[in-house]
Fold this protein.
Amino acid sequence: MSTLIQAIRGMNDVLPGESHVWQYVESVLRRLMAAYGYAETRLPIVEKTVLFKRSIGEVTDIVEKEMYTFEDRNGDSLTLRPEGTAGCVRSGIENGLFHSQAQRVWYMGPMFRHERPQKGRYRQFHQLGVEAFGLAGPDVDAEIIAMSARLWRELGLANDVRLEINSLGSPEARARYRDELVAFLAARESELDEDSRRRLHSNPMRVLDSKNPDMQQLIAQAPHLEQYLDAESAEHFKALRAALDTIGIAYEVNPRLVRGLDYYGKTVFEWVTDRLGAQGTVCAGGRYDGLVEQLGGKPTPAVGFAIGLERLVALVDNEQLPQIAFHPHAYLVAVGEAAASHSLGLAERLRDAIPGLRLQLNCGGGSFKAQVKRADKSGANVALIIGEDEVQSGLVGVKRLREDVGQQSLGEVALIAELEAMVGREGEWA
Ligand code: HAM
């Protein structure tokens, strides 16, 4: 017997029984993007490796250890995108989207990082990314935060997430702070854990991000970036906080929030939850005013965020989904050969007549009892029944599967009216 081929660790199937939750969340996201005037952009999953090295940063965890990088047949080094911002900027520059105009875009799709899989952390995961280009903020920073806050409300998650914000300042301010931080950490090198010692000179701000309990006391004593902020960034941050206060979005300033990608400056933020264990960041982002220029475009301010969709879907309570059936409205039972061939045509006529009708046809025959059992299992509200009598009379038996009422016999016109009413009663969500 040949061995079973299994999926790659950390890369998941979304099964038929789960996909409706994804579809629902995606439909809410699409509506939300439209409500804020953001347009979808569709980007390749594979990009040149150098794009990620230059944008995310050579000495970040993502680039150092997590990228799926391979050589193309012609020898180019390519990488499965670990995130979407780099490709979005590449595309914007290449297609001239940033020429003296603002661009507000979003994208949704799979990302790849070779991390150690655990609950909420996968090797193939999905993001919704939102990016606004050509707007120096802080109004647009507040706008995208308001957009994410609205999403939590729409999905019934407002009490499950909290917002943390920080400002990383200008590159110069950050460089000054970095020197101070390195001096502080170097003087205590013997107290650092292995990870932090490795980061001390390559990426010292990430030391502040350490989750190691033994490091927390030392981290608490480290100098604060806030004291080194340049005047412009401090003003920007103040205005953002005022805007969030005005629109009533609660936040906590977390001076230790530094983010794991190098392109950020000024505003950074994360929405975190306690409901997902260690992988509690559902949404994260910030300002990256230098990246477009760094990748060869004209200087263009930019800000954005990405939501981890696996984490978002895990938070959404299936019971809370609006009362929409994802099941068929009706299941067409046909007993006997004549009925089966009659039912194919009837099913097509019903679908023609009633846009939005979800009708499942019994295929593969079976006894009346077996077919009604399948109808029940499908989740349909009604079973439409065709037997030999119905083929003769042109009527259709209508059996309500979720209510205790007797079976009816309806002609096609009455049946269409009945099903139309059923479809019409359902809230439109897609
Ligand atoms: P990030 O913090 O690397 O930022 O990822 C954003 C979100 O993606 C995380 O908060 C998390 O919800 C989800 N995520 C990341 N890695 C995984 C994983 N291995 N498994 C499951 N979910 C994961 C970025 O990617 C930036 N491009 C965000 C951004 C857009 N900044 C500005 N614009």
User: Anything to note?
Assistant: The chain has two domains: 16-169+229-319, 327-423. Residues 156 and 316 are 8 Å apart (CA to CA). The pocket of histidyl-adenosine monophosphate is lined by residues 83-85, 113, 115, 121-122, 125, 127, 129, 131, 260-261, 281-286, 304-306, 308, 310-311 (CB under 6 Å).
